[in-house]
Design a protein that fits this description.
There is one protein chain. The protein is α/β, with parallel strands linked by helices. Helix content is 24%, strand content 25%. Strands 1-12-7-4-2-3 form a six-stranded parallel beta sheet, with helices on both faces. Strands 8-5-6-9 form a four-stranded mixed beta sheet. Strands 10-11 form a two-stranded antiparallel ribbon. β5 and β6 form a beta hairpin. InterPro entries: FTHF_cligase-like_sf, LUD_dom, NagB/RpiA_transferase-like.
Length: 207
C-alpha cells in the first residue's frame, strides 16, 4: 500500500459518517455590468488602461500593428502559429517563428511578440490566452519585453469572470494577464518587467 493510498484511506475513514455536503448556491450575480456591448467595451478599455496597458481601438489591425512595431523600433517580432497574416501585413520587422526548441535566451532576444487571445474580461481588465491558434505557448507571452495582444470586438469580450469561466476549457493551459508584468516591494516601489513584458499593448479590433 502506497503512502498516497494510506492517506486517502484515512481521509475516507474520517469522513465516513459525515453528513452530505449541502448543495452549492449559485444564485449570485454573474455580472455587475449593464448588458450593453458598448458599455462593456468601454469598461474593458478603462480597466486595461488602469493596469497600465496601452490600449488602441481600430478596425484594421495590420496598419496599426506595423505602426506600433515601428514606433518601438522592433527589428524582430515573434509570430505564433495561426496568427492571421493580415495582422503583420505591413510590418517590416523580421518574423521569428515560435518553435518547440526555442530557448529562453532566443526568446529574450526578440524585440516584440504579437498574439491573439481566447477572450478578455471587462470588469477585471484581464486578457486570457489558452494556447489556441494565434496565441502560441505560455512562454512567448512571458519572455519578450513587448507584447501586442489583439482582442476581437465584440466576440472575444465578456463582462465578468463567471461569464469567462463558462467559455473557457479548464483543460487548456490558461494564462491570465492583467496589464504588464509588475511587482511591488514592502515599500510599495513598483517595478515592471520582472516576471514578463514591461510593455503590454492591447489592440481592440472591431469588425
Amino acid at each position: 500500500m502506497s503512502s498516497r493510498d494510506r492517506i486517502l484511506a484515512r481521509v475516507r475513514a474520517a469522513v465516513a459518517d459525515a453528513p452530505a455536503a449541502p448543495a452549492i448556491t449559485r444564485d449570485y450575480l454573474t455580472s455587475h455590468t449593464p448588458d450593453d456591448p458598448a458599455a462593456v467595451l468601454d469598461l474593458l478599455h478603462e480597466n486595461l488602461a488602469d493596469y497600465r496597458a496601452v490600449v488602441h481601438r481600430t478596425d484594421a489591425a495590420g496598419p496599426l500593428i506595423a505602426e506600433l512595431l515601428a514606433a518601438r523600433g522592433s527589428g524582430s517580432v515573434l509570430v505564433p502559429d495561426g496568427l492571421p497574416r493580415e495582422w503583420l501585413s505591413g510590418a517590416t520587422a523580421v518574423r521569428v517563428d515560435d518553435t518547440p526548441d526555442s530557448t529562453a535566451a532566443e526568446l529574450d532576444a526578440v524585440d516584440s511578440v504579437v498574439t491573439g487571445c481566447a477572450l478578455a474580461i471587462a470588469e477585471t481588465g484581464t486578457i486570457v490566452l489558452d494556447a489556441g491558434p494565434g496565441q502560441g505557448r505560455r512562454r512567448i507571452s512571458l519572455v519578450p519585453d513587448h507584447h501586442i495582444c489583439v482582442v476581437r470586438v465584440p466576440d472575444q469580450i465578456v463582462a465578468s469572470v463567471p461569464q469567462a469561466m463558462s467559455r473557457l476549457d479548464p483543460r487548456r493551459p490558461l494564462t491570465w494577464i492583467s496589464g504588464p508584468s509588475a511587482t511591488s516591494d514592502i515599500e510599495l516601489d513598483r517595478v515592471e518587467g520582472v516576471h514578463g513584458p514591461r510593455t503590454l499593448e492591447v489592440v481592440l479590433l472591431s469588425g
